[in-house]
Design a protein that fits this description.
The chain is an alpha+beta fold and 181 residues long. The chain is built from 6 helices and 4 strands. The termini are far apart.
Amino acid sequence: MPGDSMKVMQPHVQNCPPMRPTSAPTFLPSLPPLPAVLYTQQVPASVTTPLPSAKPVEVVIPPVSKSHTQSQDPQPRPNGTPSPSAPINIPPPKPANVVPPNFKLLVQSLQTHRSNGNHRPLRSIVSLNICNNGLTYKNAGVSKFKEYAALAEKRGIVELGGREATAWISLKPEFHGATVT
């Protein structure tokens, strides 16, 4: 009775949920609607809104006058936010850090690497860019790039990372916009 066994198996197969391959995309639930605050619409001065109690209630919104929008008191509000007419104090931009003369070539080289999209160039590449037959290091009072880079790190100009063949050097954010002449 092979046909009977098929009949027994068939209802079992029909009750199984459809199989989805693991590589198939999973559908996520839809996002909830945005809050009403984000929608912009003009509301008439008088709006009739029915309440669930079946009695309509008229809501009157008074027009806004300039005296309401421009407070004479620049004191902060109770919640800590300044009143609309309070002047906003924006601090002046910080002046770019002054690059010490002995590190101008280093900063120029690192700025060039940054402008090319390389924020952490290898130290070996940078050392070749600025060595100037060792004169750059000598002017800083050291004899090797390793000492020169450590001195620049100590002065807060660069950040060092990695090791051996992957050792990199990066310009600190304070010197990203530094003017080097």
